[in-house]
Design a protein that fits this description.
Radius of gyration: 21 Å
Helix content: 40-55%
Number of helices: 13
Bound molecules: tryptophanyl-5'AMP
Shape: globular
Strand order of the largest sheet: 1-2-3
Order of helices and strands: EHEHHEHHHHEHEHHHHH
Number of strands: 5
Strand content: 5-15%
Structural class: mainly alpha
């Protein structure tokens, strides 16, 4: 196996540059990434190979890829400590993904709820094969780095189980090659729901105006979206699993994820208050998070060459590890080494 670059256990995670990053991406993923970066050897990639499972405009994809990397850093990822890179800059991801695709049973792939949801919205004949094979690529991302921990939102849990199953299958057939990763999800904010439809997950590809707060939203716009969030006709402000109270529960969960306060403390803070107060407080704490993030984002986008140099160093560090693992997997599977 590849020797770790430092003695800390590895972390790998990624976000698709397929739209505007939302507070769901921040609370479910980025915030955890920042929290683990001093205890782990972290690799954070912008997963552009995943993004092309849906049609992308080429210029827009390039722009979003840089924007996403800059958001990682603006959110608190320190490129001196963690490795930030672009997935397609390290060809080993595609190469291992093919090998894993060949050993991924269709039955496992067909069971993936994300595939079922996404493909249900398209005509059967036009669904790209990449959408089905997507979890094998995600498994390659993780296994190439021998990641022990993968910080993600709730919707990626099943893909992590798939990754473990596939790694076990490979190890069983060809000998110990891959490390089995564990999933890490946050206590609050692992599944942030749409503000306009709190029974559906907040998504960066949903187009309706008041669905999501984007990390780069103008602050007054972000506030407005939260003030317009769907609630209910009750009055009491408390956490609840009831479907009809999903809107208030979502706002409380966002508040909990941002402030880190306990549920009991939050419920007593809002006792006797109205939904207007709840929305105002949620908007205040979200805006207080976005403001410095946007400040750093603008600063680093204005620093000519900075982002590209981070991504260059990231690519080199990532490729060195990924290529070693790929070589080992190729050898195990029986590919003739080039002379
Ligand atoms: P993606 O791009 O859909 O989302 C990126 C991360 O954000 C989390 N997330 C959310 N968390 C809470 N509430 C939400 N509403 C919400 N929406 C998104 C996701 O769980 C994810 O952690 N397949 C992955 C990207 C990926 C990856 C990987 C992740 C590719 N390779 C390897 C980890 C390791 C995806 O599509 O995430």
């Amino acid at each position: 196996m590849a020797e770790p670059t430092n003695s800390k256990p590895r972390v790998l995670s990624g976000i698709q540059p397929s739209g505007n990053l939302t507070i769901g991406n921040y609370l479910g993923a980025l915030k955890q990434w920042v929290e683990v970066q001093s205890d782990y050897d972290c690799f954070y990639c912008v997963v552009d190979l995943h993004a092309i499972t849906a049609e992308q405009d080429p210029d827009e994809l390039r722009r979003k890829t840089r924007e996403s990397a800059a958001i990682y850093i603006a959110a608190g990822i320190n490129p001196e400590v963690s490795t930030v890179f672009v997935q397609s800059h390290v060809p080993a991801h595609s190469e291992l993904a093919w090998m894993l695709t060949c050993m991924a049973p269709l039955g496992w792939l067909n069971r993936m709820t994300q595939f079922k949801d996404k493909s249900a919205r398209q005509a059967q004949e036009s669904i790209g094969a990449g959408l089905l094979n997507y979890p094998s690529l995600m498994a390659a991302d993780i296994l190439l780095y021998h990641a022990e921990l993968v910080p993600v939102g709730d919707d990626q849990r099943q893909h992590l189980e798939f990754t473990r199953d596939l790694a076990q299958r490979f190890n069983h057939l060809y000998g110990e090659t891959f490390t089995l990763p564990s999933v890490m999800t946050p206590k609050a904010g692992a599944r942030v729901m749409g503000l306009d439809n709190p029974t559906a997950k907040m998504s960066k590809s949903e187009e309706s105006e008041n669905h999501a707060v984007y990390l780069l939203d103008d602050l007054s716009r972000a506030r407005k979206k939260i003030m317009r969030a769907v609630t209910d006709s009750h009055r009491e402000i408390r956490f609840s699993d009831e479907r009809e109270r999903a809107g208030v529960n979502n706002l409380l969960t966002i508040y909990q994820a941002v402030t880190g306060e306990s549920r009991a403390a939050i419920e007593s803070h809002f006792a006797g208050k109205g939904y207007g107060d709840l929305k105002r407080d949620v908007a205040d704490c979200v805006v207080a998070t976005l403001e410095p993030l946007q400040g750093r984002y603008n600063e680093l986008m204005n620093e000519a060459g900075y982002l590209d140099s981070v991504l260059k160093v990231g690519r080199e560090k990532a490729a060195a590890i990924a290529e070693d693992t790929l070589k080992l997997a190729q050898e195990r599977i029986g590919f003739l080494a080039p002379s």
